[in-house]
Amino acid sequence: MQRTPFFYDITLRDANQSLKKPWDLKEKEVIFNYLNELGVQAIEVGFPAASEMDFEACHRLAQIAPANTVISGLARAVEHDIVKVARAIEPATKPRIHTFITMSPFNMEYVLNKKPEEVRKLALDAVTFAKNLIGKKGDVEFSVEHFGDCLENLDWVISALQDVVKAGATTINLPNTVERYRVKTYVDMIEKVYNALPKDINISVHCHNDLGMATAATVESYFAGAVQLECALNGLGERAGNTNMYEVAIALHNSGIETGLQLNKIYETALVVAEMANVPIYEKAPLIGPDALAHRSGIHQDGAVKTKNMEKGAYRAIHPSLIGRSDDEKIGFTSQSGKTAVFEIISSAGYPITMQEAVRITPIIKEKAESVGELSDNELIDIYMKEVFEPTGAFKLINFEKLSDGMFRLVFSHNDKNYDLNGRGNGPVAACLQALEEAGFPQKLLHYEQQAIDEDVLGSEAIAMSIIHLEGSNGETVIARAKDSSTMKANVHAIFNGLNIIHS
Ligand code: KIV
Ligand code: ZN
Predict the structure, then answer these.
(1) Does 1 score more than 60 pLDDT?
(2) Topology (CATH level 3) of domain 6-261
């Protein structure tokens, strides 16, 4: 089914009415501009009968609305409210009056204290009145409040809606005003109404999130025939909120449906809305949560790193850039993490490390994480600096100096026994190794290199970094590094670091 979903935003009405401090005109205008940037097709700007302030806000937003955006206001099924909406949104190019009444048996009896036939008449009168007021310039939306609770009288609701459509409503909204039951129950009801009404009527869904399934109910309703999807930014709204627009948009996008929205505006919008609503985005909020891109288990970290720059990721629903998120997948190091995380965190911070070194220092980092929990990148880097550049052990370099005639003097201690030897060789590395051999510590040098230092990460006092590969007595290879302002000292220091690693 390829119908373009019609995103009808209710942030300025349903979300706004749930805020501890509802927005004033200026604040509403900020959100309104973000909604236009996102490209939603319709915006319910408020409930003009609620207060003079909301009336003014609706009026102003209708004046500045883009010509192709439907601008609507909510009204109970009473003439006073409907007139207020008509006046408030009159400047819009595409105005809509949205009127509603409950049709659930429970609410008709205990809240409205009215018989079903009285309610049907109120609905018809409201829609007829609204249609006359709005004329050809705009349209009328009718909502069955508590539709999700109309399972037992669904046939009656459908017959009432057939009359409501004849009276002039072109959008029929079927709210799950309180989410109480299964998604499938609701979606089946949507499908039944869709099949019973003329095909030129827009079926709309409006789901509250009392059980945390509003997104699922909205997405599946789209596939069952609903075209208008009433959603709110950040999932704000009464109680546990309304359907979160971002989740619906991305679920449809991932399912191959063109949403017509500027998805890359989502993240920025979410941050602004959270701030303005004074409702922080919770850590684990899908897509936009601060922790929504974090991987802490070794297995997930491995998959995340291997698929890092690919559009589809092993452990993420989208590439963050799709919603305009520039922060990358976060690799957080805990006792559950592994070598890939160590390698990724250290190398992303610009420090030199090989996977072999990451494997070596991972148990040390894990031990620390076991006692303190997640380590910050800086804590991890501190351990790396110590374990890679200053590994402690039985060998201590005390002095190394150049004598004359290719001779070098090496002073060191091993387990508190001091050695003072001369070595010869073509360069300090060979001379140091020769002196060590003489002291009874022969080492096989497999590889040696000097690297320029990135001053920003390793400190400006160091100018040289030596990297050596030594073979231990059991044949294992160790990589050791050292940095110093003297190339000669960096070389010898690296050999001693290697010794300490081999004999640790
Ligand atoms: O949740 C609801 O039923 C509503 C209607 C007024 C549309 O917000
Ligand atoms: Zn609602």
Answers:
(1) no
(2) TIM Barrel (3.20.20)
